[in-house]
Design goal:
The protein is of the alpha/beta class. It contains eleven helices and eight strands.
């Protein structure tokens, strides 16, 4: 039996078709409120944002949390394309479908990685962004031990990307908190209930396989070298996150033409939206400004 949709007070659900795929959205707040799109990471879905959506809605924003292709309650893509540029394409197309010409963006993990890409490609679309736990795609100015260590720490992705029995993938999921450091996401069973579906096991495999075989080579080849960040961004990362290294929070500063600030959150691992929900809520609401302001207006 398919897993039931988890309930969050004030959150409604709808479906739209994005690039031919049925896409699930969780929404909260007034329809006319300034739109804030929240993009989840793995192993999560829209429910990752249950601590933030009610606060955004109460403040007068329109919070929109889509499930990525193949995850949560969204349709599995027949093309089996899980490259992160493809996720960025999906996010841009979702905004077109919803008639949104300007949004604020909050993203975690793969949702943050895709968020960096959209900020670089479509600064006209992204008013400002809060990106969490996924460092920017810019190549380091120099290869230092921290950068090398970060590449080496991606080894945990190999078993996730490799072919393995269904039960083994689920076992890997249940150990993900220990692997990535920090405690696992709250309500882990809400996520594993969806990931037990064969299609979502396949989506998980391809999400990481495409990164290692298709996305990572481009990063190593300096695909994003020379690109400028023209969107105001706040970047947060826990100092116990596997991908944390000294200086990582400041890496994007040299590539930014807009207001940028990185923050290291002490004592927090990879799942910052769960581990530091109050802090993230404070940072997001403080950075977005008043929901009554005109989107994109200088401030």
């Amino acid at each position: 039996m398919p897993a039931a949709m988890p309930h969050v007070d004030g959150v409604d659900h709808r479906e739209v078709v994005v690039r031919g795929l049925r896409t699930h959205l969780a929404v909260a707040g007034p329809e006319g409120g300034r739109p804030v799109v929240l993009t989840h990471g793995w192993p999560q879905h829209w429910y990752e944002w249950r601590h933030l959506m009610p606060a955004l809605a109460e403040a007068g924003y329109r919070a929109i949390a889509p499930d990525w292709r193949g995850f949560g309650w969204s349709e599995y893509p027949p093309d089996e394309d899980f490259r992160k540029e493809t996720l960025a394409d999906d996010l841009i197309a979702l905004c077109e479908v919803l008639g949104l010409s300007r949004i604020a963006l909050v993203g975690h993990d793969w949702g943050a990685f895709a968020g960096w890409l959209v900020c670089l490609r479509r600064p006209d679309l992204i008013e400002r962004a809060v990106l969490v736990s996924a460092p920017p795609p810019f190549p380091p100015d120099r290869i230092d031990p921290g950068a090398l260590r970060r590449i080496g720490q991606l080894a945990y992705q190999l078993p996730i990307a490799a072919p393995m029995p269904h039960w083994a993938k689920l076992a890997a999921l249940r150990n993900i908190g220990r692997v990535l450091r920090g405690r696992p996401p709250d309500d882990l069973e809400v996520y594993t209930a969806r990931l037990e579906q064969p299609s979502q096991v396949r989506a998980t495999t391809l999400l990481y396989r495409d990164f290692l075989t298709r996305d990572l080579p481009g990063l190593i080849a300096r695909r994003y070298a020379g690109q400028r960040l023209k969107v105001p961004v706040r970047f947060l990362i826990g100092d116990e996150d596997l991908v944390y290294s000294e200086g990582v929070a400041d890496e994007a500063a040299a590539h930014a033409d807009a207001d940028y600030r990185g923050e290291v959150v002490p004592g927090v691992g990879h799942f910052l939206p769960d581990e530091a929900a109050d802090l993230l809520r404070e940072r997001v609401l403080g950075f977005l400004g008043s929901p009554q302001e005109t989107v994109g207006a200088p401030r």
